[in-house]
Amino acid sequence: MRTPSVVAILGSTLTGEFEDVKLMNELLTKKNKKTGWNTPTHVDAASRGFIAPFLYPDLEWYFRLPLVKSINVSGHKYGLVYPCVGWVVWRRKDDLPEELVFHINYLGSDQPTFTLNFSKGSSQIIAQFYQFIRLGTEGYKNIMENCRENARILREGIEKTSQFNIVSKDAGVPLVAFSLKDSSQHSV
Ligand SMILES: *Cc1c(COP(=O)(O)O)cnc(C)c1O
């Protein structure tokens, strides 16, 4: 059986580290060529979708890579909107399988919908729209740079205590993940 899709995670939940989507795309291209498959990639950019464009604009992780067919990003994380708004973008209309779209004849006209529930408040979408207009590219960039700086200061403070191992990476989601050193590693 062939693999239906390979998912790359941009911003691991545990450490904020990002997977190398470009390398994955290259390896998968080779694999597809060898096997005759046509396996695409989905990028789970829940955390980093709103970070990478501002802090790492040259990083290749989205539709620039030919096998990336869809990307999800959480508006309620670094999109700076309260829960629950998330986005998913497909490269082309036909990359979203037709059988996942429900067609509902509502008030006399066809309404295609791809959601799990029907009636739903729109406040988060309005809030996301507001943030886009209010902050713009520059605003998001300033906030993300500030987050990165805060993470750096926090990491340095935690390192100074000598009690913890830092497990997050410098490049990635601006967060600090750390574990307690076992007693043999403690400096006295
Ligand atoms: C947060 C997160 C999710 C879940 O996203 P929601 O928008 O909260 O549903 C999925 N994958 C990763 C990598 C995440 O960080």
Describe the protein in words.
By secondary structure, this protein is α/β, with parallel strands linked by helices. It has a single domain (6-150), classed as Type I PLP-dependent aspartate aminotransferase-like (Major domain) (Aspartate Aminotransferase, domain 2). It is built from three helices and eight strands. It has helices spanning 21-35, 52-55, 123-160, and strands at residues 6-9, 41-44, 68-74, 86-90, 102-106, 109-113, 164-166, 178-180. The protein has a four-stranded mixed sheet, covered by helices on one side. The chain has a two-stranded antiparallel sheet with strand order 5-6. The model has no long low-confidence stretch (mean pLDDT 90). Residues 9, 11, 13, 44, 46-47, 74, 86 line the site of pyridoxal-5'-phosphate.
Give the N-to-C terminal Cα separation: 56 Å
Structural class: alpha/beta
CATH class: Alpha Beta
Low-confidence stretches: none
Helix amount = 25-40%
What's the shape? globular
CATH topology: Aspartate Aminotransferase, domain 2
Sheet with most strands: 4 strands, mixed
Rg result = 20 Å
DSSP helical segment count: 3
Topology as H/E string?
A: EHEHEEEEHEE
The overall average pLDDT, rounded, is 90
Bound ligands: pyridoxal-5'-phosphate
What's the name of the CATH homologous superfamily?
Type I PLP-dependent aspartate aminotransferase-like (Major domain)
